[in-house]
Queue: 4 jobs
Job 1
Amino acid sequence: MSDKFFFKGRKTPKPKYGESGYNTKRVAKAGTETNPLQLIVTDENRAQQIQALLEQHQLIGKIIIDAEKAEDIRQLDVIINKPSTTLVAAKPNRNEPCPCGSGNKYKKCCGAN
């Protein structure tokens, strides 16, 4: 006989409150002590330039000097050149003064088009 007639409550216990919404497996931010940037450069002079960039942006990175490999600083470029949100000016409401400076309401001047 199945226990569905006699069992009251949940068969599987509800997860605890603190564990349900918290992501414990998220990736650490790149450029910190726990996850330093891995950068490859070809010579010592370029390594000093990259180190200056890291200090300027308060990042931590491991710079490897290897003349045999091609330069690889993509991780640094991604963090420094992060795209920004484009802001667009709001269109004036119908009854506000027209931005062209005519003194008329927007609906009578430029909004009539």
Job 2
Amino acid sequence: MPNGRAKALGAKEGFVKILADARTDRLLGATIIGQRAGDMIAELVLGMEFQASAEDVARTIHAHPTLAEIVKEAALAAGEGALHV
């Protein structure tokens, strides 16, 4: 619930989990459950196609307030740690 857009939508449940290689940080997969999950997965699929790292996703600008900010938080959590969770 730390996401403003999720609060506005009344979306109280859901999560994003990113799986990255421990050695290279390359994206290996993701799980997204909740409202608009289909919209959010597109960013990670594109990242996987271009062999992005979790850090690459975390450093990408995510507009505020959007649900996509949750993807950024998950990417941060795959590395140094999320900001708002």
Job 3
Amino acid sequence: MNGTPLLSVESLSVFYGHFRALDAVELSVGAGEIVSIIGANGAGKSSLMKAIVGQADRIEGRICLEGADLADRSTAEIAKAGVALVPEGRRLFSSLTVEENLRIGQEVGREGDIGFDDIYRMFPVLRERRRQLARQLSGGQQQMVAVGRALLANPKLLLCDEISLGLAPVVIGDLYEMLPKIRERGIGILVVEQDISRSLAVADRFYCLLEGRVNLSGRPAETSREIVARHYFGG
């Protein structure tokens, strides 16, 4: 990667009380790059996401966006700096309409080129259902709203936390087809997934976490699935 990476995580440890969820993790994401974080339950993937958006209990180390340290900033400040999260479980406001949920992304994010028309071109069904309440949508449609909301924040870095969880395979396929199109805008994407095959198929690079540490990293095309599986399960 040439120059300063978009995201740089340096010697990052995350603590919950006395428990260390991440231990000296190092990783980077470039602008216009898709990086996958894989690992089983309890590997530390969600702790990494929480740390990046300022929601971890306590951290040591550095988390930098374009060289600027995010460690002491609030979640709202981090969003304004250009980091948007598609959270595990979507976390929509069920009593608000599709369009009202999407508008929240604009309100918490930064100025940029992505607008409602871009989201509706990406997910045409959301235009049709923009006045429906979020709770009336299918799980896949709700996930589209969650992705759209994050994109309307006009992020430099998009964090995707288990976006395939609980969805039908065809919906997962549609969502993952969108990631390279998002990358074309120069947005860096960090994808956290348990689904190894799906995640590695779209990634430029990957990091495997085991018990809070990076135990393998590289390019999917240059790493055998046997090696990935062995490190994933700690064999």
Job 4
Amino acid sequence: MARVRVVDDPPTEGQRYLLAHGEKNAALGEDVRNMWRADAARVNLPGEDFWIFDSHIVAVCLFDDDDDLTGAELITGPAAVNQYNRLRDVARHYAVPYQKFAAGMAAKEA
């Protein structure tokens, strides 16, 4: 399992919570990477949150005005799924492994 988290500067309370648990996920073998939102914008990543399952199904997360998850839109069309797979590859290329991101964040806050 792998994921890329886009983080605001400064991180929101929810993002700090997820970052605090990133070490546990990484210790269990998950490839957790992070990138700043400004960096994601520079490489033209979308602002939406999505999950890819077996490179064939995309779930685009839907949130309400309070940023609570309310559901997901499933995408299965091959052309659209391929576009999300490309976005995943771009995100993974530019994102920083959890340990390095957390160390940089700690140094920035010191």
